[in-house]
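Fold this sequence, please.
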Amino acid sequence: MQKSFILPSRPKLQYIEKRADLRKFAIVPFRACTDERLSRADLITLIMLAGYSSPNGYGFVALSTMAKLRGIKPQSVSRSIKRLESKGYIQTVRKGYTNLRGALRRILFDESLTEQEQVAISNDNQVEVYDMEKHKQVKRTKQVKADNSLMSFDDAMLVVQHSLKSDADLLRLERLVQAGCNREQILAAFS
């Protein structure tokens, strides 16, 4: 007797509506309004970065997102960001990862303020201050021959890239690397 195979019923797809963009304003350094060194494109890029940033100036938005909203190429946005960095308006705190998240950037409202002072003035104590010195120490970690050695963040990314699904996973990975976890501990945390 031969059994026949019955196809399952067709799944019903639910279309999720895109959420409305709730950004209504952007906090921009006032000195940008009167700076003749800034082109119109640079000023628009700065305003877009500010629109995607928290009140204390930190934000990560992908170049492709900004380019798409402006109707230009991502390379143009990248050049504009480089010019803004060279003129002291923004600082790239941490590089982004393709198709995962944009780079973490900080808008420098006043060049004389430290990161801690800028966060204190913003009254936004929910966001951690990113410690640049800690990040540099993690990058400088040398890899020893043993398998239980400390790992750099980039090496750890290669090990668990299949398990990373959100920004929270990236932040958790970064904290594990900063804590000095070895390969096995990192793999165990993501399995």
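The domain at 31-121 is CATH 1.10.10.10 (Arc Repressor Mutant, subunit A). Confidence is low (pLDDT under 50) at residues 125-148.
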